[in-house]
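Lab notebook, bench 4. The sequencing result for the construct came back, and we need a structural model before the next group meeting so we can plan mutations. Quick request posted to the team channel:

Model the 3D structure of this chain.
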Amino acid sequence: MLKFQTMTTLIIVVAIVALLVLWFISVQRKLVSKEESVKNALSQIGVQQSSRWDALSALADLVRSYNEHEYNTLKDVIAMRKDITRNSSAADVDAQEAGIAAALKQINIVAERYPELKANTMFDKTMDSVNTYENQVRMSRMVYNDSVTLYNRIIRQIPDSIVASMLHFEAKDYLKEDSAKASMPSMKI
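Done. Here's the predicted structure in token form:
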């Protein structure tokens, strides 16, 4: 009888340990999946920002035919460009956005000084593509922040937070919305 009780106890302990191991593996897989979603969303922002930088470079080339100094100023701003990858941080993305905003502001100033530049059809088409990329970045930023919300929620909620802390999963930062952008004038010139 004692042997039967010992065997039953051993089976129960092994079953509990097996369930805990399966739960641990399940949580780890969920954490990795959510973290990869965050990294993918960040990478998508980088792709969209890269397209915007390319459009800004095309605008700078158009500006060159009107004023060499303005062109050089724009090229200096564009030269500060850094690639956003899946391993970048939210602060890196926000810094890139600030650089893009500075370049767009400079382009607007040049366009105001040279009405014939504003009338250039290539300038107009390129500005349309900048606006299209701007909307894509806005959507990508929303996807990123949504992914961060899901990820951060998992690593903060018990019991998953236990596994997250054991495996050193850390909270991700949200992208900050520039309050000046809410009142920013349209880039359509």
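The radius of gyration is 26 Å.
Will bring this to the meeting.
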